[in-house]
Records
---
Amino acid sequence: MGAHTVGRAHSAASGFDGKWTRDSFAFNNAFYAELIDTSNEWDQIPSPTQSANANSNANGFPQWSNAGGDGGLMMLNADMSLVMAMEHRGSDGRPHIDEATGEVRCRWRDFTLRATEICDAEDSLSIVEEYARDNQGFLEDFAGAWTKVVTLNQRDLHRVDVAAFRDARVDIAVPTPTSSPTVLIRLTEPLNSAEPSALCCAAKRAPNWNGRCWGATSKATCDAVQPPTKRCEWRPSECRATQTCSLRDVDCESNTECCSERCRSDTKQCS
Ligand code: HEM
């Protein structure tokens, strides 16, 4: 959800309207900081009704506004639910959130604008607080998670020339990257050396074990893939930056999808 630090909602698209942060072009932890800034006094308001657009909320599904501030920011229920336990029951015994309408009957802590129940904190609050404190930590975690989202079990990834993706518009200053971009490598191109995140574990002469071996990213975890006999081997000279076949227990349709080269016919999962 931290990606909501950039961009905005459009009334003609989703039916919601507004930005989550002041600078919607800066990718940072501002989304988390705004969420827990009690001076925002987040309050729920109806979103603009766009009944002409099939994708919008014709019934005006509500969004949140920083009513204690200038009202210039917005949050969705999905955003607020990172800090507020909307599913908990209020003093009337009903859940705070009405799932049919999106109406939430409690408010985030320190809400003083009108009498209302204060919601319990959601379990994820501590993570929101950590990211709001630690921008670098958030950026690093996001980069790791996003890389996983776009590469996991994607076969046949190709090396790309990042220059081709630079914004060529003259009115936008394109920053020069300070570090080398992460390059995705196909299985046919081994890395030269073991990198901390590289997959260097391979099966010894046992095709059906390869799936188990490939999940390991360190010698210790490679060695730990065990019975019935030790079949996985740490091979730094064959490290890969990304895995392009499916590991054990991942859904599959054919043998070729699996690192183990075996898609079980009963469970339809890689062995
Ligand atoms: C429960 C999860 C999520 C919900 C309900 C949700 C909902 C929405 C909605 C309603 C919009 C406004 C669309 C519009 O009106 O144009 C939006 C925009 C956006 N979302 Fe999410 N989102 C979720 C998760 C995510 C995740 C996981 C990411 C990325 C990692 C993401 C990235 C974005 C971005 C960048 C925009 C701005 C798009 C723009 O500026 O046009 N969202 N989201």
---
Amino acid sequence: MRLSSYFLPVLKENPSEAQIVSHRLMLRAGLIRQSAAGIYTWLPLGFRVLKKIEQIVREEQDAAGAQELLMPTIQPAELWQKSGRYDDYGKEMLRITDRHERPLLYGPTNEEMLTDIVASEWKSYRDLPKILYHIQWKFRDEVRPRFGVMRGREFLMKDAYSFDLDKAGARRSYNRMFVAYLRTFARLGLKAIPMQADTGPIGGDLSHEFIILAETGESGVFCDKALVERDVLNEAVDYNGDLQPIVDSWTAPYAATDEKHDVARFEALPKDRQIAARGIEVGHIFYFGTKYSKPMGAVVQGPNGESITLEMGSYGIGVSRLVGAIIEASHDDNGIIWPMSIAPFHVGLINLKVGDADCDKACDDLYAKLKTAGFDVLYEDRDERAGAKFATMDLIGLPYQITVGPRGLKSGLVEVKNRATGEKEELSIEAALNKLAQAKPA
Ligand SMILES: Nc1ncnc2c1ncn2[C@@H]1O[C@H](COP(=O)(O)OP(=O)(O)O)[C@@H](O)[C@H]1O
Ligand SMILES: [Mg+2]
């Protein structure tokens, strides 16, 4: 992509409405613009990141055996009347009436809708187990939308729902999602710690929030330092094998959100291992038994003709919130530092002297070669001061910058900068290409 024709409205000044660094940087780097409180347009650069995150989430759900579908954003109120949540949900639900005076709503979540589909389609125990998911916009009319995409009113969520014949099966589904979440966040370059979370009125211990530690986080959290120091889950997982040992290894050390905090257990840890911090909830998994299957009639016939009410769980990831969370975890004074796996472009190619025949030619050549090698390249081909070009590149945070100037070119050299480390190297064009080839994500 040539920057001269790209829609990238960067801001020089810090926008006054933004209270936290990720919101500030998302506005300044031209990722989003607010349309109304808590509702955003994703501009081209931000949209690329959102799509890359979505794709990683999708790949890991698929790997765990979940099947993707797509439910609508608008739901009939009737479904929620059946489950009893229509009145309970309160003002966060955006209620709509159509021209025939039929009550509709903009979905804040999809338990009812999917349980209803399952109830009418599945008749036999042979139809189970299954995990279904979609990645769809939600609307919750939050009292205080804030921090940009972190707490929006309209936001993109991956929500999965598991259906099993018994509790043991539900536990296996829960474990699949638990492990898929560990892998998803690791691929996003994040250290997300699973913490015991509130299960609400149903009780039980099967609810975990996946939390990124950050000063600007909205949740108070407590955990054993062992979890913070632990390596993220990078190795491949056999989802058909027994996942309980992996889950146990992550849940044995103490970790809880403030609603589930057990002061005695926490204080039994050595002082230097007690972490009391703030965190951002990027995912939440939940087992809730027959809470929806019972009222909505999601019942199948067992092998001996008996009726089985399905055991369910639900599993959310805040896809749009993740863009902000990743920036909170990865930035410096000059701007964003994208991990390679989700960077909107892998490389920024900076032409220091647009119009100079040698610089233009070297850049055109590099641009073509990088693209052939599979890199997403943003080519800074505008007629601007060098300082402004560098500042923009640092602000938008592409992992690598290649700078081409007349002086270096005389000796056949370009400069490669690693955005994360700040390390700069003068290399021949060949060597620069080789260097990047090593960093390329699979
Ligand atoms: N208002 C919001 N804006 C952005 N993301 C949200 C919002 N509410 C929830 N999410 C994301 O969706 C995931 C699943 O939501 P859920 O746990 O149902 O919401 P909550 O924790 O607010 O009850 C959360 O872990 C979070 O990452
Ligand atoms: Mg939650």
